[in-house]
Automatic annotation (TrEMBL):
Record lineage: Eukaryota, Fungi, Dikarya, Ascomycota, Pezizomycotina
Organism: Karstenula rhodostoma CBS 690.94
GO biological process terms, semicolon-separated: carbohydrate metabolic process
GO molecular function, one term: hydrolase activity, acting on carbon-nitrogen (but not peptide) bonds
NodB homology domain: residues covered: 77-308
Record Pfam families: Polysacc_deac_1
Top-level taxon of the source organism: Eukaryota
InterPro entries with a match to the protein in the record: Glyco_hydro/deAcase_b/a-brl, NODB_dom
SUPFAM superfamilies, A to Z: Glycoside hydrolase/deacetylase (SSF88713)
Gene3D superfamilies according to UniProt: Glycoside hydrolase/deacetylase
Name of the protein described by the UniProt record: Carbohydrate esterase family 4 protein
Length: 329
């Protein structure tokens, strides 16, 4: 029998089941937009597990072909090439789509991955897309010791800053540890860098503030703004057996349905934020890409749609609702 859970005073935080309640909150998006849309491209290719980086196995997650046994200390060139498709072809297909439609996206950049292909970051910076952090490597951080995780956070910030010219303003792990929510803003503070938002939450349709444990005795706490990410409007579900998307039409219907519901709520005076999570090696495949292209072109014709980077959304929210200790907004 497992031992009883004991909250850690430095890293634990309370759960919130109430949120903004029945009344909700109008985030007051710029120009009275009815909806804020955030496209996120997860760039992981080169930061995944590989025997060539000392992991002992090839990556097992989010791959086209789940068949075949796990081989230890042997390369799986099929998995490697599948990931390489994302960096070689899939990313650039997505990059062109958003540029052609004059829409900005946020790149969730795994630092070790973009170190292998620096032109991705350079071109994003050139045209005004955002570089955010998706950690130093695309691995599970749950069992990392605190000191090792802090080291990886620092390495990621330094790496992305050297490639883009600025420290990432936002952070998303995806496979975070119980310590991550406190450690990420702590390392930013220690390095003298600004962290505007984090996204390891799926708890709401608009941003919200949380208190930070290490600031509890501070005379001027900054809090942490949470920008909810999305698992449901996310192409990774093409690779989820049972509950995922069976075909591109299913993906399109789902994200279009979500958009329509949130847009209607915005028309009624309660705008929301919608996130669409994308992966270069998944939606970047031609057979799936057509569904995304159709959606992008359709919302581009709608009035009152604000497609923005996550930092632009965070800054707009912070302007209307600055941090107040103990309050969501």
């Amino acid at each position: 029998m497992s031992p009883a859970y004991t909250p850690h005073p430095e890293y634990d935080y309370p759960r919130d089941f109430q949120g903004y309640g029945e009344e909700g909150l109008n985030p007051k998006w710029p120009n009275n937009a009815k909806i804020a849309v955030s496209f996120v491209i997860n760039y992981e290719e080169g930061g995944e597990r590989s025997v060539m980086t000392g992991d002992g196995i090839a990556e097992q997650n989010l791959r086209e072909n789940p068949l075949g046994g796990l081989r230890v200390n042997e390369r799986n060139v099929s998995v490697e090439s599948e990931y390489e498709y994302g960096s070689r072809a899939g990313f650039w297909r997505l990059f062109r789509l958003f540029n052609e439609n004059k829409m900005k996206f946020t790149l969730y950049a795994v630092a070790q991955a973009v170190e292998e292909n620096p032109s991705v970051v350079k071109r994003c910076v050139d045209v005004g897309h955002e570089i955010a952090s998706h950690a130093y490597r695309w691995v599970d951080y749950h069992d990392f010791p605190v000191d090792k995780e802090k080291e990886y956070i620092k390495k990621c910030i330094e790496s992305l800053k050297s490639l883009s010219g600025y420290a990432p303003k936002g952070w998303y792990y995806g496979r975070n540890s119980p310590h991550s929510r406190s450690l990420v803003p702590q390392v930013y503070q220690e390095m003298g860098e600004e962290l505007i938002w984090t996204s390891d939450t799926y708890a709401d349709d608009i941003p919200y503030w949380t208190d930070v444990n290490f600031e509890k005795d501070s005379a001027s706490p900054k809090g942490q703004l949470m920008l909810p990410y999305s698992y449901d409007c996310n192409d990774f579900k093409f690779h989820v057996v049972g509950s995922g998307f069976r075909d591109p039409t299913g993906f399109y219907d789902h994200i279009k349905g979500a958009f329509d519901v949130l847009y209607e709520e915005g028309e009624k005076g309660m705008p929301k934020m919608m996130t669409i999570g994308l992966h270069c090696r998944i939606i970047g495949r031609p057979g799936r890409f057509a569904a995304l292209k159709k959606f992008v072109e359709e919302i581009g014709k709608k009035e009152g749609v604000w497609v923005a980077t996550r930092t632009e959304i965070a800054e707009a929210f912070r302007k209307e609702y600055p941090y107040r200790k103990g309050q969501l907004a």
